[in-house]
């Protein structure tokens, strides 16, 4: 059915050149009877008639919300619709042309113009539905279902309609005139019943009844869920405007708003219900911004229930629910009313958000709360319908008059609130927070129910308490008005869980406290009391984590500190951190123990030793091949890199990487003696798991080396001494409860090493040699002092020296051949290295928050036994140039711990 509707407006130019952009004609002002206005019952504020400034001052301006406008055409480039970046907030679908009439732009200005707009940062999508009337004027609208569908598909859920048929009141209409088979009417019915809100001008015929479109729920009551009709009041008096249709039979979905404005889009003034409805649309955008999860139904209830009552008391046939009050609407509903809820309950369902209804809510309906979100009731609420918490959290900071039923997936949280009725916990969760709970009826918990109580919060029940062996969860004093409080091992903390004036039936079947605490409950006929003390964290850790080495060490260190805290009130900041640890779950405490261990400062020394051994092995490879080319003097250089791991059961494992190079010069002093010197640079990194952190070290070293070959060229001895300066950086996180702190520290280290080897080469064939050898190695690292000052649980330690002496035995095999690239020597070796001393790399430290309490920090130690396997090649390309490459594998604890690759070249001087 094609329908052309008239624009209900009157426009008067503010200039002297006559009317502009509309007005006049059928449906413009109307000539219906004008009823004597009923004066508003409270003072009217012409400066802020819709009370929008309060919510505007709180930062609500429609940002992030998009509304749709079906109207004539839109001036999308007008400055009134520009955002702070100069982009237009008003757009229209180019596929609809409309007619040249400024009505649509004026409507948009009331919604979101930057000067007079209710929501000056809202986005607006326009559908140009303007049409030429039968009398040739451009005052008509021809809405099409595709316009609505395009807006809906663009995210619009709030639709403004400032048009209608003034000549036809809804009470004179029939369903056959507006059948649901009409695509537009069907769209209204479908979307109003689900998620959308349609806001309508009530008409300008001055009648006692609304026009058909705004009054359509009179024919189809199911439309009420997403429908608002808007009549107009005078901007100076607040009384019903003479031209405006009254609410009449639409009073249950009708509201009043100012209808006359001075516009900035064009130099005109205008009046009409056309401009009253966009004021409500702008207010709806503010409500949507405050409550992004609200559907059209709840936005409608918020707007209508918060209207300022004017005219006859209550909902009346002139003003409906009253005059628009935007700031109050932005605080949520003020009524849970069956007339607005269209049933017994106001249904609130949303996920993820936390929202507050701060109005004092009255009415005869109840509330159902569903979804995972949190709804806070902070007002003095006197509605009489029951509260049913099906999901998420219903939080009461204020007062609730009626009964609360908590279902299995629901939570009632009371923090200083009062329930003037019963609370029946049918397997859900009742939380008593820091400011306490008062229940004037009974509190009943089924056997599957949970009562969660914050120590120190009063839980007072004026009726009976029926517990049915339900569960009690205890929260120790935490965030809120109670500062985190450390609980010692003897006195602990004691407090009342609840009191019941009319007695307690049954008891709690189980009491759950954080895993690091003990609980002791006592009960008499009217009261339940509880004492909490702390556990020995070392004993707990050993039992809970199967004597894991890291956690044993951390928990023993932590227990030493806790014992000091047990007997002292000093260091309040550290006590707060310790109290936070006491709130931990088993998983969270495991993470905390891993993170505060500081084991990286022990284990990272293993990285330094690994780095030194890789350089030493590379230089040993050079010495092993030295002398094959009987050169006088030569310079050599190489690049080396490697990848490996640090591992010891019970500690954090690390993946390691290093790269670097060496530059050296050596000389054949005699046919039997080679002496040389080398400088090396390497950088190594280790990335540990289990929250241990990351370590990086840069090693700059020098070495002196030599080789002596005995007469006959079979027996030899070689040696190396070296020193290095090492800069080490550590980055890690300390996790306390659910909070993480990033720490970093650096220290300067010094290393010294020496190596000696004696071997004898047997020639198996003319070109194949086999060389058994033995050696001694000494390595020493002095780790510098460090302090992690970014956390109370950071570590502070003095410098410490680590030493390891080792013996080595092994065998080398080599062969030489000539080919087109030159003379090549291939060599491989297998070495076993055994340590003479056990160096575990542990050290003494203290937490920076308690620097006088020393303890031992453990980590990965040096291996007692190491196996090295390597292969290499040396090729003499010319008389002066040779190149070589080596691969070395380090095996410890049945694992490949390091892979070292090197490639280099030597130039000989003649």
TrEMBL record:
It comes from the Bacteria. The active site is at 71 (charge relay system), 103 (charge relay system), 274 (charge relay system). GO terms for molecular function: serine-type endopeptidase activity. CDD domains: Peptidases_S8_Autotransporter_serine_protease_like. GO terms for biological process: proteolysis. Keywords: Hydrolase, Protease, Serine protease, Signal. Residues 1-18 form the signal peptide. Transmembrane segments: none annotated. The keyword Hydrolase applies. The keyword Protein biosynthesis does not apply. Residues 628-909 form the Autotransporter domain. Residues 22-56 are annotated as: Disordered. PROSITE patterns: AUTOTRANSPORTER, PROKAR_LIPOPROTEIN, SUBTILASE, SUBTILASE_SER. Residues 22-32 have a biased composition (Gly residues). Pfam families: Autotransporter, PATR, Peptidase_S8. PANTHER family: C-TERMINAL REGION OF AIDA-LIKE PROTEIN. Belongs to the peptidase S8 family. This is Outer membrane autotransporter barrel domain protein. It comes from Sebaldella termitidis (strain ATCC 33386 / NCTC 11300).
